[in-house]
Amino acid sequence: MADDALLSYVPYRPAASRTRYYDITLRDYVDQFKIGVWDREKGRTQRVRINVTLTLPWPDRPMTDNLDEVLSYDFLIDGIRALRDGEHVHLVETLGDRILALCFSIPEVTKARVQVEKLDVVPESGGVGVVIERSRPEEA
């Protein structure tokens, strides 16, 4: 009977997708941000760790090893640094939402995941914060 089960086994093959995707990641970016809701947090900076993953369609042509053919992560780093240098933010949720808005300023981005953590709030932990994910509505 075991032999019969092996003969009837059909390996899983995912359906072919019309579009391939790739991710751009920024992992463990740590910098000083003006963030916090409490009086003791205002007027100073805190260490914040940011992780971002952006999903984009893979070009439907052979790659030519040219930077102009892909989205450079420089826009993401420059945008996060601009947020760092901007006004005081009360909540990690607000900072995360602003980073998501930065991600979706690129029309090709289909999905983004942002994690923002304050690193020095709870000494017993590596960080406290939020993870926010958003997808662009699919076109019909």
Automatic annotation (TrEMBL):
Its EC number is 4.1.2.25. InterPro entries: Dihydroneopterin_aldolase, FolB_dom, GTP-CH-I_C/QueF. Gene3D superfamilies: 3.30.1130.10. Pathway: Cofactor biosynthesis; tetrahydrofolate biosynthesis; 2-amino-4-hydroxy-6-hydroxymethyl-7,8-dihydropteridine diphosphate from 7,8-dihydroneopterin triphosphate: step 3/4. The keyword Chloroplast does not apply. It catalyses: 7,8-dihydroneopterin = 6-hydroxymethyl-7,8-dihydropterin + glycolaldehyde. Pfam families: FolB. One of its GO terms (molecular function) is dihydroneopterin aldolase activity. Residues 24-134 form the Dihydroneopterin aldolase/epimerase domain. Keywords: Folate biosynthesis, Lyase. It is an enzyme of class 4 (lyase). It comes from the Bacteria. Belongs to the DHNA family. This is dihydroneopterin aldolase. It comes from Azospirillum rugosum. The lineage of its organism: Bacteria, Pseudomonadati, Pseudomonadota, Alphaproteobacteria, Rhodospirillales.
